Fold this protein.
Amino acid sequence: MFDIKKLNEEISTQSIFTQNLLGEISNVIVGQQYVLERMIIGLLVDGHILLEGLPGLAKTLAVKTLSQSIEAQYKRIQFTPDLLPADIIGTLIYNPKDGSFNVRKGPVFTNIVLADEINRAPAKVQSALLEAMQEKQVTIGNTTYNLPKPFLVMATQNPIEQEGTYPLPEAQVDRFMLKLKVSYPSKEEEKLILEKMTKGLVEVKAVTTLKDIEKAKKLVSQIYVDNKVKNYIIDLVFASRNPQQYGLNSLKNLIAYGGSPRATINLALAAKAYAFLQGRGYVIPEDIKTIGRDVLRHRILITYEAEADSMTSDDIIDKIFNGVEVP
């Protein structure tokens, strides 16, 4: 029989390392608690993350610092218009001495990949990541290679630049569990950034290991989700597809496409990881609301009518959360 009390106690003890992790990263990254928490959520459930924000908001530094603090292998790929798929996944190199082909593995063979400015490369390059992100494997020539565990793609993009950029295909965007909007720091935070960064970079210490992360993942998978909460998740996703069935008639002409089944799965997984961060062995509706925007904002496509009304997918998500009954 499932013992929620025992699981609660175990999670309460085991989740302490996440606070140490957040503390260590916060020594380098000032503020951005929301972003750091979501990055750890992605780590706990193998969910890829897309970070969208203006230049200079420490997106790249945050990913690098996370890797260093968990002793993970980390590689950064700078996406540019002349990048080729082979530059990411690797290729076969011909050896003229014996007429053989040797495999040269690309930078994707690591634990955490930073795809920097992912929208600066054309679709054929972006799609090179698709198999890696979904199947956790890469095919070079006739051979398929498994990627290291854990394997996580964290991609960044600039929301305002249009010159020399290529919008991400919907199939690619849907493979990101979370899309995070990185905002400017507050006045107090900016002063701290000024003081820290003018003294030189802070040395990052490893406060946990990949083994600890794997143990935590097993616990996260055991977190209890009640049937009422599962139904709530399904209702939210279905309301994004058929809003009129939930009394949200005003949204009918504002949503072009609702969330895919990946939205349903990722809402549940991200909610479990968020509950773990709170030291809880069960998911509550408030967890769904807290991480809901990050899971849904890139999966709900809005119409031209919504754009004409200056509405964003975030606005529509808020209306869905306000319209769907909470269990």
